[in-house]
Amino acid sequence: TLAWCDAANVLRIQLERQDIKYIPSLREYSLYYGIDKAKLDRLEKEITIMHPGPINRGV
To answer: What is the pLDDT of residues 28-47, one digit of tens each?
Structure first.
């Protein structure tokens, strides 16, 4: 839950680095753990969403 957060640092699953499937599907992971506008709208306060960085442009 994000209800207690002031900020969230959101990372992506690096499927290209996984030899074992730790999650059934990316869709299921996104459903349970992804952050979208609907989930943010349900919060009682605004929180800051931080970019994980660094960005590797052109890779």
So the answer is: 888 888 899 999 999 999 99
Report d(CA 7, CA 17) in Å as an integer: 27
Task: Break the chain into its structural domains and give their ranges.
Answer: 7-46
Angle at 5 between CA 3 and CA 11, to 5 degrees: 110
Q: In the predicted model, is pLDDT for residue 7 greater than 90?
A: yes
> Which candidate, 16, 9, 2, places its Cα nearest to that of 46?
2
- Phi-psi map region of 53: left, alpha, beta (phi>0 left; psi -120 to 50 alpha): left
Strands (E), the chain: 7-9, 48-50
CA 15/CA 29 separation, integer angstroms:
12
